[in-house]
Amino acid sequence: MSSHDEAPESPSKSERKRRMLALQKLGETLVNLSPDLLAKIPLNDTLKTAILEARVITKHEAKRRQLQYIGRLMRDTDPVPIEAAIDALESKSKLSKAKFHQMERWRDTLIAEEDDALQRFIEQYPHANRQELRQLVRNAKKVSKGADTELFRYIRKIIETS
User: Fold this and answer.
1) What is the overall mean pLDDT for the chain?
2) Distance CA 74, CA 26 (A)
3) Domains of the chain as residue ranges with CATH
4) Cα 133 to Cα 5: distance, rounded to the nearest angstrom
């Protein structure tokens, strides 16, 4: 039996340092989250307190030390649920941005193409009120102040209820 079979190799110093820096970076991400998003992340009380303290620190060196401390606390915490929660928040954010852009495109298309675009919109969202939508498009074309915003709000209401 060789010495390779007896003890598993421990990670190299460089690998340990990469892991430590990755945990510190994850901690930094947590510090930069808004309070309502942070509340959705599964954290122990010590880590949550350290993160909240890091937010109020303004001095560069003190903040760096606090982030290192958070990284140290992260070593005793399973990062997988935290990373999964952050990924879920980010994907939800990307989805809502895509939906917002889709609504903007519909508004711009309805104003530019009117009848053809109106027909396509009604086909895709049959519960939309054709008359109300047509009136909102006409008002937006006249460049009435706030009319394009009203059109956007109506499109958002229709898309979100579908």
Assistant:
1) 88
2) 8
3) 11-77 (1.10.60.30), 94-161 (1.10.60.30)
4) 74
Sign, Cα dihedral of 98, 103, 106, 108: negative
Model pLDDT for residues 113-139, shown as the tens digit of each residue: 878 899 999 999 999 999 999 999 998
Are the beta carbons of 136 and 157 closer than 8 angstroms?
no
What does the block give as tokens for 155?
């499109």
3-state secondary structure of 125: coil
How many C-beta atoms surround the C-beta of residue 115 within 10 A? 10
Prediction pTM value: 0.56
61-119 pLDDT tens trace: 999 999 999 999 998 888 899 998 988 888 888 878 888 999 999 999 999 987 889 99
Contacts of 109 (CB under 8 A, 6+ apart): 117
Tokens of residue 120, six digits: 């396509």
Q: What gap in Å lies between CA 138 and CA 32, rounded to an integer?
A: 44
Write the DSSP symbol of residue 44. -
Alpha carbons 50 and 52: distance in angstroms, whole number? 5
